[in-house]
Amino acid sequence: MMGLMRWISGLAGGVLLVVTFASVLRTMVVPRGMHSMLVLRLWQMIRGLLRLLVAPFPGYPPRDRVLAWLAPLVLVAMLGSWLGGMFVGYGLIMHAISGLPFGASFREAGSSMFTLGYASTDRLQLSALDFLAAASGPLVIALQIAYLPTLYGAYNRRETEVTLLQSRAGEPAWGPELLARQVMVGTESALPELYRAWERLAAEIGESHANYQILLSFRSPQPLRSWIVGLISVMDAAAIQLAVSPRSAPPEARLVLRASFTALRDIARVIGIPFDPDPDPDGPIQLSYEEFLGAVAMIGASGFHLERKAAEAWPQFRGWRANYETIAYELCRRGDAVPALWTGPRDFPAVPIPPNRPTDRRPLTR
Predict the structure, then answer these.
(1) Are 287 and 325 in contact, with CB atoms under 8 Å apart?
(2) Which residues pair with 353 in a beta bridge?
(3) Domain range list for the chain
(4) Share in percent of the chain as helix, strand, coil (round to 5)
(5) Per residue in 317-331, is it b (16+ CB within 10 Å) or e — as a string?
(6) Out of 91-95, 110-114, 149-153, 208-212, which region has the weakest mean confidence (pLDDT)?
(7) What pLDDT score was predicted for residue 125?
(8) How far is the CA of 85 from the CAs of 65, 78, 203, 301, in angstroms?
(9) Which residues 6+ apart lie within 8 Å of 134 measured at CB?
(10) Which residue pairs from 351-354 have beta carbons closer than 8 angstroms and sit at least 24 positions apart in sequence?
(11) 225 three-class SS
């Protein structure tokens, strides 16, 4: 019976080590958009706890302040879970190999993992395992330390463009507002450059956020800003421009749309958001025709050149939006993004917040 228990202990320890190291490699080493079930469960658990904590407080700002801790807490929990998994795994294997009591086995595992050396024994059969444990602990900690500059580098590049968008599309950003403001301040010619910048950013987001999913939970420094809301606003602006002004719309509008919904699909595949890879352009979308009609009227009143009426432009706009609406709405919901216009429902009671309007209407060129 004792031999059977030691065999089960060794098997359980080996499986736990394999699962733990696989999670480490999938999360921080292999750049192929793999997700770790352990990290996903940690994210779900911590997000649920934070949402319970903020539930008594009304309004969006308190929720944003509390949820800003989600990504840092997940990072700390990841490291703690990996080190804890290795500690238990090595302890179980040491018990199976040496026959030491569980207390002494775990004491030796912890001593070796953190290179303390105070619990070393004279058992030669544990030497190789002690060396492996001594290498594993510092290695995982070093990987986590090296992981952070990559995350924050991608985060800073993303937030730079999100911040620059604030003066063009309002806060929170909204696609029709982006088009209207360019007319009001006389910077319509800057739209192609904006689309090019967001085309490149979309490609980077598709690569970085699919490989390092924790970036999806990093919130903007300001509560009314959000990378996914900003991306939706740029896509909506490009789709509206292509729909209402097809002859004068720059080719960059098509490019940013394709780059953006391709990036969203890459992220959706990794985190398990279902989507139609070939949606029917004539199928229904969640955004209503009345909302589109009001937006076209608003940008037309601002002086934006309309080559088509709203009724003629609606099928074209709907065909573009069908490519990204489902994924974008789900990312906004999961990320508890600021409830901006045209970004779908949230898991918390929220009224869509329109973009703030500047009081100074003087042209930027003055």
Answers:
(1) yes
(2) 340
(3) 2-144, 170-334
(4) 70, 0, 30
(5) bbbbbbbbbbbbbbb
(6) 110-114
(7) 61
(8) 31, 10, 35, 61
(9) 112, 113, 115
(10) 353/60, 353/172, 353/224, 354/170, 354/174
(11) coil
